[in-house]
């Protein structure tokens, strides 16, 4: 019997499926259709990102989804080790190709030209071709060896880059933005469900709703069998494509909306819950790393911040819900800087320099 184990890693947002033996054809097709790919060196299936459909499939197959034991850096080190093996193998192949070409060249007297018309001409030209091909192969293999060394270094560098506090802070902002998208989807579905369930809904009003609400009708006896596209609520209410679909009543359209929108709400809430969990993880990791420098200081207009090696004066501190997101500075080209880019800070000195005065004036302006 095949033993299946599923894991999830919040570091890379990937789902992984481990199997003790080869999957049967039906399970394999379902796993592939859900977007999983086979990683032969690791001996597992992985999905590039979490989705409700993929999670449901793994829960069905495995019963539960555990935490991934290996960290992002651990996996990067394993990849770097594999790339290092590839590099060593290609370097060995290059050395052997070079030695073979050199052995042929050593058998030819130094400076000996090809004697045109001599009985040795054919062999000499063949040897010259072998030497050229051997040297070209050696050079290509040496370049390939360098490529795998670069890949090994890049794998480790990328993993460590993703763990930097400023990179993690930017990732948190992106997750917050994606969460807001699904919150809007949920709220929109709740609003439209309220419209469809309103008492006394007339057909004319339902047609107006259907023109802006994407509701699809379930198949019904009388629909043409060769039609694979579901009928829309608007088409059902306006009797469009009467030769393709059986007639629907207003009550049937309302029932379809009552089924469709709760599903949309539940799907959006699963995404929201997922993003809340990811945000909790990223914020905890950021706090464990010591947080951002900009969160530890009291940023004030007139103060100076060090961003990308240059000092500039703060003109305005930009906040949302009481949290500082960025600062507007007197820098000429890129005045607005996110808080994660701040590396150092100097409080206002109280002098009367033009920059400090301008910052104070801007801060006090309505």
Report on this structure:
It is a single chain. The chain is of the alpha+beta class and 366 residues long. Helix content is 54%, strand content 14%. It has helices spanning 25-33, 52-62, 72-106, 121-162, 165-196, 203-210, 233-237, 250-288, 293-296, 354-364; strands at 4-9, 14-19, 37-39, 44-47, 65-67, 304-307, 310-320, 323-329, 336-338, 342-346. Strand 1 and strand 2 form a beta hairpin. Helix 5 runs antiparallel to helix 8 (250-288). The longest helix has 42 residues, at 121-162.
Short description:
By secondary structure, this protein is of the alpha+beta class. Helix content is 54%, strand content 14%.
Write the layout of secondary structure elements.
Layout lengths: L3 E6 L4 E6 L5 H9 L3 E3 L4 E4 L4 H11 L2 E3 L4 H35 L14 H42 L2 H32 L6 H8 L22 H5 L12 H39 L4 H4 L7 E4 L2 E11 L2 E7 L6 E3 L3 E5 L7 H11 L2
Parallel strand pairs: 1-5
Antiparallel strand pairs: 1-2, 2-4, 3-4, 6-7, 6-10, 7-8, 8-9
Helix pairs in contact: 3-4, 5-8
């Amino acid at each position: 019997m095949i033993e299946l184990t599923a894991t999830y890693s919040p570091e890379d947002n990937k789902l992984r499926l481990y199997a003790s033996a080869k999957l049967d054809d039906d399970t394999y097709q379902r796993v592939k259709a859900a977007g999983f790919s086979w990683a032969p060196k690791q001996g597992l299936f992985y999905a590039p990102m979490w989705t409700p459909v993929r999670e449901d499939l793994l829960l069905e197959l495995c019963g539960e989804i555990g935490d991934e034991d290996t960290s992002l850096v651990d996996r990067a080190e394993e990849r770097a080790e594999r790339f290092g093996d590839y590099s060593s193998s290609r370097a060995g192949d290059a050395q052997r190709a070079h030695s073979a070409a050199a052995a042929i060249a050593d058998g030819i007297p130094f400076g000996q030209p090809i004697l045109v018309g001599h009985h040795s001409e054919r062999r000499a030209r063949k040897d010259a071709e072998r030497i050229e091909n051997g040297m070209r192969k050696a050079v290509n293999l040496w370049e390939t060896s360098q490529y795998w060394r670069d890949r090994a270094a890049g794998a480790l560098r990328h993993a460590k880059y993703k763990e930097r506090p400023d990179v993690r802070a930017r990732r948190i902002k992106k997750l917050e933005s994606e969460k807001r998208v699904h919150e809007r989807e949920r709220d929109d579905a709740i609003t439209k469900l309220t419209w469809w369930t309103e008492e006394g809904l007339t057909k004319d009003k339902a047609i107006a709703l259907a023109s802006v609400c994407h509701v699809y009708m379930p198949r019904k006896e009388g629909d043409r069998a060769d039609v694979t596209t579901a009928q829309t609520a608007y088409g059902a209410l306006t009797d469009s494509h009467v030769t393709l679909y059986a007639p629907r009543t207003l009550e049937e359209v309302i029932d379809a909306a009552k089924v469709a929108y709760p599903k949309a709400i539940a799907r959006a809430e699963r995404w929201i819950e997922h993003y809340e969990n990811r945000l909790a993880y990223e914020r905890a990791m950021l706090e464990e790393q010591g947080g951002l420098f900009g969160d530890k200081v009291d940023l004030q207009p007139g103060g100076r911040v060090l961003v990308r090696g240059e000092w500039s004066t703060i003109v305005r501190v930009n906040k949302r819900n009481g949290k500082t997101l960025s600062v507007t500075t007197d820098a000429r080209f890129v005045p607005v800087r996110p808080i994660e880019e701040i590396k150092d800070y100097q409080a206002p000195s109280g002098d009367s320099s033009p920059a400090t005065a301008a910052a104070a004036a801007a801060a006090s302006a309505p």
